[in-house]
């Protein structure tokens, strides 16, 4: 498929990946691109694969070559392993694909006919053991990839491969950032503890359109007055954070919470860490968070962006064309 040169930066389980690894990866990728490499393949455990993909999307911008993260749900000693096929697809993408973005290359349908290329800011692991676990949420995957047909784009708009070596590396990350997953009867000491321990940013995954209970209001107000940046995402994963609809959302915005549109909670966490690694100015933080780098915020959700079985996009498309008039 291609000639590969390898470099081992670290060997850790993916749950032990974090900001230091993200920054080292971004810097190493930048050097390889400047040295003339035609594509990047990153082997990675699946548990936090989407976090790393989001981090690299923000840290490595304007790449002229494909940057492909790949892993496997099942180990290579199992008959049903997806390891070899995923690696073949990743190598095909890095060597011959026209899409020059940070992507996750993982298993497609159970027919083994092709894999998917997911954009780094919209991908999420959605099943603990299923091989087709990775999904593009509120959008469609970038492309399919197979040994027979190579890389076939699904999306019409993407960053194309270029011959120049120009790449922008921004390896910044503020570690004092947290995700708070709201649950009924959550108490204000959860927020107070983060503030008292010096956290600079909080991503809340709220219910519905972006809601939390009233007992948290004083803690939220205290946090924002102390300069903590708080953004709201939705637990539903699909859809937008619409905080203007109900009193609760409007009250929370008045207390300083900023809706993060349709950013995934984990992507918002990574982006807030990246933004706060560069600035703490409230207006600049808000501007950077709400300015899309690569579709972490989209203008709308496409008609086929909410697919229960994304394990077979062409098959679903055929079904929709036939029955959805």
Topology:
Blueprint: H1 19-34, E1 40-43, H2 49-59, E2 60-61, E3 67-70, H3 83-96, E4 102-107, E5 115-119, E6 123-125, E7 134-136, E8 143-146, E9 150-153, E10 168-169, E11 177-181, H4 189-196, E12 201-206, H5 217-225, E13 229-234, H6 247-254, E14 258-259, H7 265-276, H8 282-289, H9 313-323
Parallel strand pairs: 1-3, 3-4, 11-12, 12-13, 13-14
Antiparallel strand pairs: 2-10, 4-5, 5-8, 6-7, 8-9
Under CATH, the topology of the largest domain can be stated as Rossmann fold
- Count of separate structural domains: 2
Main beta-sheet strand count, sense and barrel state? 6 strands, mixed
| Shape field | globular
Number of continuous helical runs: 9
Average pLDDT works out at: 93
Task: Name the quaternary structure.
Answer: single chain
Q: Which secondary-structure class do the elements indicate?
A: alpha/beta
Level-2 CATH architecture of the largest domain: 3-Layer(aba) Sandwich
Order the strands across the largest sheet as they lie in space. 1-3-4-5-8-9
Q: Can you tell me the CATH superfamily of the largest domain?
A: L-asparaginase, N-terminal domain
CATH class of the largest domain: Alpha Beta
Radius of gyration, taken over Cα atoms and rounded to an integer in Å: 20 Å
| Helix percentage range | 25-40%
Along the chain, the helix and strand elements come as HEHEEHEEEEEEEEHEHEHEHHH
What is the percentage of strand-forming residues?
15-25%
Low-confidence stretches: none
Q: Could you tell me the number of beta strands?
A: 14
Gap between N and C termini, in Å? 42 Å
């Amino acid at each position: 498929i291609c000639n590969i040169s390898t470099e081992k930066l670290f060997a850790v389980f993916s749950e032990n990946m974090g900001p230091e690894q993200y920054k080292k990866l971004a810097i190493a990728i930048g050097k390889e691109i400047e040295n003339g490499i035609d594509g990047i393949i990153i082997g990675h455990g699946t548990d936090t694969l989407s976090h790393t993909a989001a981090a690299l999307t923000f840290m490595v911008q304007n790449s002229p070559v494909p940057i492909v993260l790949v892993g496997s749900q099942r180990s290579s000693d199992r008959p049903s392993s997806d390891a070899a096929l995923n690696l073949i697809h990743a190598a095909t993408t890095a060597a011959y694909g026209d899409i020059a973005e940070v992507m996750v290359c993982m298993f497609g349908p159970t027919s083994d006919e092709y894999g998917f290329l997911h954009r780094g800011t919209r991908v999420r692991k959605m099943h603990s053991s299923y091989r087709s676990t990775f999904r593009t949420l509120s959008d469609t995957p970038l492309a399919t990839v197979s040994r027979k047909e190579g890389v076939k784009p699904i999306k019409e708009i993407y960053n194309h491969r270029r011959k120049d070596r120009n790449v922008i590396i921004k390896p910044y990350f503020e570690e004092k950032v947290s995700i708070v997953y709201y649950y009924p009867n959550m108490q204000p000491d959860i927020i107070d503890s983060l503030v008292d321990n010096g956290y600079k940013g909080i991503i809340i995954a709220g219910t519905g359109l972006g809601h939390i209970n009233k007992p948290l209001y004083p803690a939220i107000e205290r946090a924002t007055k102390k300069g903590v940046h708080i953004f709201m995402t939705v637990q539903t994963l699909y859809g937008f954070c619409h905080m203007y609809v109900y009193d609760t959302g409007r009250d929370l915005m008045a207390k300083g919470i900023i809706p993060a549109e349709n950013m995934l909670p984990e992507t918002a966490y990574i982006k807030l860490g990246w933004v706060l690694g560069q600035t703490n100015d409230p207006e600049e933080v808000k501007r950077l968070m709400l300015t899309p780098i690569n579709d972490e915020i989209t203008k709308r959700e496409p008609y086929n962006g909410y697919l229960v079985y994304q394990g077979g996009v062409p098959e679903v498309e055929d079904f929709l064309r036939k029955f959805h008039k």
